[in-house]
TrEMBL record:
Keywords: Endoplasmic reticulum, Membrane, Transmembrane, Transmembrane helix. Pfam families: SPC12. Residues 70-95 are annotated as: Disordered. The lineage of its organism: Eukaryota, Viridiplantae, Streptophyta, Embryophyta, Tracheophyta. This is Signal peptidase complex subunit 1. It is found in: Endoplasmic reticulum membrane.
Amino acid sequence: MDRQGQKLSEQLMQIMLLAFAVGAFATGYVIGSFQMMMLIYAGGVVLVTLITVPNWPFYNCHPLNWLDPSEAEKHPKPQVQQRTSSSSKKKSSKK
């Protein structure tokens, strides 16, 4: 999943969960059933999970172009130099 696919997945999740929450609350209020409200919302959560969690092809519209291994060898990664710290000397105090 590319970066724009992640953004799309997040937006779909938020919109759909809000829609299911409002719909479940309205249905539960009209019917007068808390159990029905929770079942509708739970079904919505399951549906949203099935839509947003798997890596569906429409989330991969903008794939990342990785560097070829042959090109990576031409441009080696810079080495981090480790600093050698001088040994710290403990100061002794005289009384």
